[in-house]
Design goal:
The chain is of the alpha+beta class and 88 residues long. It is built from 2 helices and 4 strands, in the order E-H-E-E-H-E. Strands 2-3-1-4 form a 4-stranded antiparallel beta sheet, with helices on one face.
Length: 88
């Protein structure tokens, strides 16, 4: 997921936004969450999420819930959210 935080003026400020969003999401959904790109770009936040399930429908629903939660939980604007379900 890519967010834009236009009000962020420093990497320290960005880290506070990212840390809050990542911790809230991990706690609520018990998934792996991390900032995966643009760590040195002040106003761009790119977050990756990993969820493991034996049911593709459940994984899709959980992913949609996480996207909605993250969009609601921050003042940053959600630009894009790419979802990939891998079946083995």
């Amino acid at each position: 997921m890519q967010f834009t935080a236009e009000w962020v003026t420093s990497l320290k400020e960005k880290r506070m936004v990212v840390k809050s969003l990542v911790e809230k999401t991990k706690h609520k959904f018990n998934v792996s969450v991390a900032e995966i790109e643009n760590q040195d770009v002040h106003q761009s936040i790119v977050i990756g999420i990993a969820c493991v399930s034996n049911d593709a429908v459940h994984a899709r629903q959980m992913t949609e819930n996480i996207i909605d939660f993250m969009d609601f939980s921050t003042d940053a604007v959600l630009d894009t959210a790419n979802v990939e379900i891998i079946k083995v």
